[in-house]
Design brief:
- InterPro entries: Aminotrans_V_dom (IPR000192), Aminotrans_V_PyrdxlP_BS (IPR020578), Cys_dSase_SufS (IPR010970), PyrdxlP-dep_Trfase (IPR015424), PyrdxlP-dep_Trfase_major (IPR015421), PyrdxlP-dep_Trfase_small (IPR015422).
- This protein is an alpha/beta fold.
- Strands 4-10-9-8-7-5-6 form a 7-stranded mixed beta sheet, with helices on both faces.
- Helix content is 37%, strand content 16%.
- A hairpin with a 4-residue loop joins strand 11 and strand 12 (274-276).
- The protein has 2 domains: 7-30 and 307-417, Aspartate Aminotransferase, domain 1 (Alpha-Beta Complex), CATH 3.90.1150; 44-304, Type I PLP-dependent aspartate aminotransferase-like (Major domain) (Aspartate Aminotransferase, domain 2, 3-Layer(aba) Sandwich).
- Helix 2 (40-53) packs antiparallel against helix 10, helix 11 (308-326) runs parallel beside helix 14 and helix 12 (356-367) crosses helix 14.
- The protein contains 14 helices and 17 strands.
- The longest helix is centred in the first third of the chain and has 20 residues, at 63-82.
Length: 419
Amino acid sequence: METGFDVERIRKDFPALSRELPGGRPLVYLDSANSSQKPTQVIETMREHFTTHYANVGRAMHVLGAESTEAYEGARDKVAAFVGAPSRDEIVFTKNASEALNLVAYAFGNPAGDDPRFRIGPGDEVVISEMEHHSNIVPWQLLAQRTGVTLRWFSVTDEGRLDLSNLDELVTERTKIVSIAHQSNVLGTVNPVDRVVARAREVGALTMLDASQSVPHRPVDVTELGVDFLAFTGHKAVGPSGIGVLWARGELLEAMPPFLGGGEMIEAVWMDHSTYAPAPHKFEAGTPPIVEAIGLGAALDYLSAVGLDAVAQHERELTGYALEALREIEGLRVIGPENLDERGGVVSFTLEGIHPHDVGQILDDNFGVAVRVGHHCARPLHLRFGIPATTRASFYLYNTPAEIDALVRGLHHVRKVFA
C-alpha cells in the first residue's frame, strides 16, 4: 500500500512511537480515538513556557504575566482560525469536551438565564442519538431530570448509520436543541450534519456537535457546518489533556448564564450580587489550564503544517486497507460501515466466541499492539447491536500499513489461542 504521505518523517516527531516494549517489541499504537500521542513540538512548547514564561494570566502586572497572557490568548486565536470561528471571543476554553457539553446543557432551564431559546421545561424536547458518547448523553439526562424536558434520540441502522427516516417526526417545534456526534467514536460514521441542521432551523431548534473525533482528523469549519455549538478536546488532537474547547455563536454565549463562578469571570462583585465579564471569560472561572491551552495551540499549529486534507486522505487509505485486511479473519464482525463512504479512521469489531478484553490483552502482551476494548463510553450503542463490548483500532497521521499488518497477525494469533 502506497499512501503518498511521508508518515516516516512524521513518526520521528512523536517520541513515544520509538519506544521498545518489554521483550523487545515495538509499540504499535492504534488507540488515538482514545488519546493521541504528542509530537516534540508540543512537548517543547509546554516545557519552554513552564520553565521561562509561566505566570497567571489576566492578573499580574509584570513581564511574566504579560507573556503568559499573550501566549494563552494567542492560543485562543489559533483555535478560532483552526475551526473557522468568526470571532476569537466565541472560543471558550474548558478542561475537556465533556465540560463543554455540560456547559451548554446547564444553560437550558437555568433560572439565571432569561433568553427564550434556553427556557425549557415539560413539553419541550431535546434530541440526541443512539451512537453518542456518554458525554453527550448524561448531561441531557440530567437536564431532563432537572426540568422535565423529554429526551428523544435518533436510532442507528444495522450498517451503523444515523437513521434519519423519521427526522421530521423527531425534530419538531417542541425541540429546543439537537446534539449529536460529528463522527462516532465507535462506528467511525461521519454524520450528515447538513440534513439535521436544515431541519432544526426549520423548527427553530439549536444544534450542537460533539466534534472530538472529527476536528483532529479533517478540516472542520463551524460557519460552513451551520451549527450553533461545537465541542472538541485537545488530547485527541496531538495536544495535552486537561484542555477542551467550546465554540458557540457569540450572541448565544452572551445570552447564556455563567457555568462556574469565581475569579476572572466577573465584571464587578458586591456582597449581594455580581455582574459578569463578557464571553468568553464569563465561562472561564478561576486560573485556567494555561500551559495546556498553549500546548493545544502548538498542536493545532502542527496539524495545520501537515495539512488536515492530507491527514484525512492518509487515514482514509489506512482505513480502507484495514477493512480489507480484517475480512481475512474468520469470525470477525465489523460493527459499523464496512465501506469508506462518510467514514473516519475508527474500526470496531468483535471476534466470535472471544471476549474483547482477551483480544486486547493478547495483542498487547504478544505483539505490542495497543487497542481499546470495552464499550468506549458508548454503552447504549453496544446494547443496540446486542453486544457487551468491542475491540477498537483507531488510526491517525502517524500510523502505517505495517502496523495494520501487525494487528492482523495478532488477531490470527488470538484465533489460534482460543481454537
